Structure formats: structure tokens, C-alpha cells
Amino acid sequence: MYYDLISVFHRKTGIPVILNTSFNENEPIVCTPEEAIDCFQRTRMDLLAIGPFMVVKPSEEETLAASSLQKGRDV
User: Fold this and answer.
1) Positive or negative: CA dihedral 8, 25, 66, 59
2) Using H for helix, E for strand and C for coil, what is the string for 19-43?
3) Using CB atoms within 10 A as the burial measure, which of 1, 2, 40, 41 is most buried?
4) CA nearest 13: which of 39, 36, 46?
5) CA distances (Å), 36 to each of 15, 61, 64, in order?
6) Which residues pair with 55 in a beta bridge?
7) Whole-model pTM?
8) C-beta of residue 36 within 8 angstroms of C-beta of residue 25
9) Residue 9, Cβ neighbours under 10 Å: how many?
10) Would you say residue 18 lies in a domain?
11) What share of the chain is helix, strand, coil (3-state, %, to 5)?
12) pLDDT tens readout for residues 5-46
């Protein structure tokens, strides 16, 4: 799966490398999917890949647009 991730990343970006670092922020290293999701939600990470799943945070503009739509305003 990691090779496939790197291959797709390379095709989409032209960059054939993904840097795998320790996954934490001012806490012990993430060990479970639950800890990974918690860290992802409260940090500035853009994307989280866990096994075959990939979660992408919406851009700030997308978040503002969704918030406006929920409040019944035009975007």
C-alpha cells in the first residue's frame, strides 16, 4: 500500500518521495487510528492516510462557503 501511495503521489505531483516522520505534536507518538484522527483534527495537517483510507481537510474557503450555506446565506 505504501508503494502505491508513493506512486500515485508521484503521478499527481511529479515528486517521487514521501517523507515519513514521527506522527505527533507535543505528545507521545500516535499509535492508533483514533489518536491519528485526533491529531489530524487539531493540527494544520492537510491530509491523513490510514491504510486504504485518505481524509483531506477542506480548504479555508471551502469551510467558509459551507458555513455560509448552513446559515442560509448565498456564497
Assistant:
1) negative
2) CCCCCCCCCCCCCCHHHHHHHHHHC
3) 40
4) 46
5) 25, 25, 25
6) 48
7) 0.56
8) no
9) 15
10) yes
11) 45, 10, 45
12) 899 999 999 999 987 777 888 888 889 999 999 999 988 888
State the pLDDT at residue 74: 53
Provide the domain count of the chain: 1
pLDDT in the model for residue 4 = 92
> Is 8 within a domain?
yes
pLDDT class for 60, splitting at 50, 70, 90? confident
CB environment 35-64: b (16+ within 10 A), e (fewer): ebeebbeeeeeeebeeeeeeeeeeeeeeee
Nearest Cα residue to 20 out of 49, 56, 57, 43: 49
